[in-house]
Amino acid sequence: MVIFPGQPPVGYHELADILREQITSGQIRPGQRLPSELTLAQTYGVAGKTARAALIQLRQEGIATVVRGYGVVVREPVEPEVIVAEPGSTVTSRPPTPQERETYAPAEGWPLLIVTSPDGLQDLYPADRTVVRVPADRPTE
């Protein structure tokens, strides 16, 4: 996306694109704070609501997170863990409870994956950093 000088982004998607590019290019690094809503609004000539929505978008993507008393910061990139479930397992998702949020620490807005084995046992995984592979059932002979 190209932004021309003096032309503010149209909406929060474009502003999120600008911030995402600054993150992927290394201009803003993991652990660093993103500009505040007020700073973004003033810098790009957008409403505070637009700046807030752009930051929320990055948080929902798992790129950024809120650190209380500090602001919105860029998350460290995480290589997803690959889980191989038993054949016949099912995978569902749901929002975490407050206790599960503390235990599994998924990115804001990301669900937990629930892998249920054929015998009914369940394992929980944060969806923002887990890939579940379920092999096909083997045909019976």
Describe the model:
The protein has 141 residues and is of the alpha+beta class. The protein folds into two domains: 12-74, Arc Repressor Mutant, subunit A; 81-133, no CATH class. It is 29% helix and 22% strand. The protein is elongated, with a radius of gyration of 19 Å. The termini are far apart. The model has no long low-confidence stretch (mean pLDDT 89).
- Per CATH, what is the topology of the largest domain? Arc Repressor Mutant, subunit A
Task: Give the assembly state of these chains.
Answer: single chain
The CATH architecture term of the largest domain is Orthogonal Bundle
Superfamily (CATH H level) name of the largest domain: Winged helix-like DNA-binding domain superfamily/Winged helix DNA-binding domain
Order of helices and strands: HHHEEEEHEEE
In percent terms, what proportion of residues is strand? 15-25%
Secondary structure tally, helices: 4
Number of separate strands: 7
Q: Fraction of residues in helices? A: 25-40%
Shape: elongated
Give the integer mean of the pLDDT values.
89
